[in-house]
Amino acid sequence: MLGGLAIYAWVRSLGSYRKFVSDKNTRLVNIVEGAPERVFMTRFGQCYVRMSGRKIRVGNDYFSELRDANNVRIEFLPESLLAVRVQVVRGIGV
């Protein structure tokens, strides 16, 4: 039983690694800007932000800033959905 869980975790991490390598080789970054729809942490301590129908993984240090933000600009890798750069605007944003 434990071996099955370990194999599942390994296969899943191998898939995310392949997506990251593919993004790195294509050298393409997508940009999304606007108000975050939802900011949440998983049980495993990973921080995600949902914007324009995409669930993008961001660094944990942005969690409190993103919850208070009115406008966010996120540059992310298109296939693996990992944030490369996060710019947070609080207040009116003018």
Going by CATH, the architecture would be Beta Barrel
**What is the tally of beta strands?**
6
Report the structural category. alpha+beta
Question: How far apart lie the N and C ends?
Answer: 56 Å
Order of helices and strands: HEEEEHEE
Number of helices: 2
Mean residue pLDDT: 91
- Contiguous uncertain segments of 5+ residues: none
CA radius of gyration: 15 Å
Classify the helix fraction into a percent range: 25-40%
- What's the arrangement of strands in the largest beta sheet? 1-5-6
CATH fold type: OB fold (Dihydrolipoamide Acetyltransferase, E2P)
3D structure, described in words:
- The structure is a single chain.
- The chain has 94 residues and is of the alpha+beta class.
- It contains 2 helices and 6 strands, in the order H-E-E-E-E-H-E-E.
- The chain has helices at 2-26, 63-68; strands at 30-34, 38-41, 47-51, 54-58, 71-76, 83-89.
- The model has no long low-confidence stretch (mean pLDDT 91).
Describe what is shown at a glance.
The protein is α+β, with helices and mostly antiparallel strands and 94 residues long.
List keywords for this structure.
94 residues, alpha+beta, OB fold (Dihydrolipoamide Acetyltransferase, E2P), 3-stranded antiparallel beta sheet, 6 strands, 33% helix, flat
Element layout with pairings:
Blueprint: H1 2-26, E1 30-34, E2 38-41, E3 47-51, E4 54-58, H2 63-68, E5 71-76, E6 83-89
Antiparallel strand pairs: 1-5, 2-3, 3-4, 5-6
